[in-house]
Automatic annotation (TrEMBL):
GO molecular function annotation: 4-alpha-hydroxytetrahydrobiopterin dehydratase activity
Keyword DNA damage attributed: no
Top-level class of the enzyme under EC nomenclature: lyase
GO biological process: tetrahydrobiopterin biosynthetic process
Organism: Trapa natans (Water chestnut)
SUPFAM superfamilies linked to this entry: PCD-like
Name of protein: 4a-hydroxytetrahydrobiopterin dehydratase
Record keywords, A-Z: Lyase
Enzyme Commission designation: 4.2.1.96
Keyword Lyase (UniProt): yes
Coiled coil segments of this chain: none
Catalytic activity: (4aS,6R)-4a-hydroxy-L-erythro-5,6,7,8-tetrahydrobiopterin = (6R)-L-erythro-6,7-dihydrobiopterin + H2O
């Protein structure tokens, strides 16, 4: 699990794929900077929010994320709310929780050139 960004997601419909425990998720969260662990109705998810410069920049961010998601065959939940608030949630729908795929996708999103799309104040955080 060391260089998450260099790994490939495995198909989520693999028979033996199981959601990780909350304990494991807590031990891995520091490997994906900026991502938080959420527990929504007993379903663990990775979550990160950004403020973008404009609605259109939000859609550009989604496009960059979509290219990674399609390449990996692993897809996040994308939210663009109140014109410039982007939130991405990542979890493995097929298992109802987190798998290594989610951490791989989060690490790859962290490698995207998002700076030009984000509000100045937000860039300080990223
Ligand atoms: C066969 C293929 O792996 C599945 O349909 C994928 C597609 N992308 C997916 N993405 C996410 N986040 N969870 C899934 O369970 C999922 N299933």
């Amino acid at each position: 699990m060391d260089d998450l960004a260099a790994k490939k997601c495995i198909p989520c419909n693999a028979k033996d794929l199981q959601p990780m425990t909350e304990e494991t998720a807590h031990s891995l969260i520091s490997k994906v900077e900026g991502w938080k662990l959420l527990n929504e109705g007993a379903v663990l998810k990775l979550n990160q929010s950004w403020k973008v410069k404009s609605f259109t920049k939000g859609l550009e961010l989604f496009q960059l994320v979509a290219e990674v998601a399609e390449a990996e065959g692993h897809h996040p939940d994308l939210h663009l709310v109140g014109w410039n608030n982007v939130t991405i949630e990542i979890w493995t729908h097929a298992v109802g929780g987190l798998t290594e795929n989610d951490f791989i996708l989060a690490a790859k999103i962290n490698g995207l050139p998002l700076h030009g799309l984000l509000r100045r104040k937000d860039i300080l955080r990223h």
